[in-house]
Amino acid sequence: MNKKFKKIPLKKLGGLNNSNYLFELQNKKYVLRVPSKDNDNNFYYENKILNLIKPLDISPEIIYHNKYTGVLISKYIKSNKFDINFYNSSTFINSIVNILFTLHNQKSNNYFNPFNEIYKNIEFLISINFNFNHDINILINKLKSLEKELTKKIHYGLCHNDLNTSNILYCDNLVYLIDFEFSGMGDIFFDLATISWFLKDTFQKELIETYFGHYNIDLQNKLNNYLFVVKLWNATWSYIKSLNSNSIYDYKLGANMILDDLFK
User: Under 8 Å CB-to-CB from 165, ≥6 apart: which residues?
Assistant: First the structure.
């Protein structure tokens, strides 16, 4: 490595599953992502996804990605800070639908099954005698029931599978997605449900209409059911993160709040 590049200042950015840093090199800004020690995602699959979407211009340009360690360097895109009002707007709905439609129409050999992931997470937590604040068996039974219903007809596509707001950038009226660690083929309703989490009812309806070109109660019901799956996946993931995280974010509290919501 060239010696003059060894002492590049790094500015800490946000991130739950990774450490992210902003740095400048030759008057250009980049983001360095370093996975946390407990991040056991398959970066080989992520590498394949990144190569697949590269020509689609739906993510900041990747400069470097290590398929073994997950260390990633990408060009920096300064995102506008959008609040809940912008999130619940036709402008945002149209932008996110356009980019998701492009992503969902791609094909990959990698698959993501949220039901299996949730069962695996719960099985692990039970094996270590994790102290749940809720009756986890009620949620398991509900999930099994939903799995039977939701797997009867799958709307297959290449999904991002982690569309929390920190993984969505908005700049110059365009949306970009980052962090494709969980990406794989699956039901596109998992992505749509994740987006709908903080949408008001009217904008959930608009999300469906914009994506499918029409609205009906079956699509709405499927969105609602997948929202349960999305929330439970996030909660069980957060419980596992709470076991050895040094973050100031209280993962267990966050998970308990999600389950409080599910039990309502």
Answer: 82, 87, 198
Rg (CA), the chain: 19
CB 112 within 8 A of CB 137: no
Q: Tell me what pLDDT residue 5 has.
A: 52
Residue ranges per domain, the chain?
A: 77-263
Q: Model confidence over 8-42: pLDDT tens digits? A: 888 888 766 788 999 999 899 999 999 887 777 88
- For the entire predicted model, the pTM comes to 0.93
CA distance linking residue 94 with residue 175, whole number of Å: 10
Contact indicator for 51, 67 with CB cutoff of 8 Å: no
Which residues have a Cβ under 8 Å from the Cβ of 59 and sit 6 or more positions away?
Answer: 50, 53, 74, 176, 177, 178, 180
CATH of span 77-263: 3.90.1200.10
Count each helix (H run) and each strand (E run) in the chain, helices first: 9, 9
Residue 26 backbone zone (phi > 0: left; psi -120 to 50: alpha; other: beta):
left
Spatial separation of the C-alpha atoms in residues 70 and 35, rounded to whole Å: 6
8 A C-beta contact, residue 132 and residue 255:
no
Percent of the chain whose pLDDT exceeds 70: 97
Contact predicate 23/12, CB 8 Å: no
Report the SS3 class of residue 30: strand
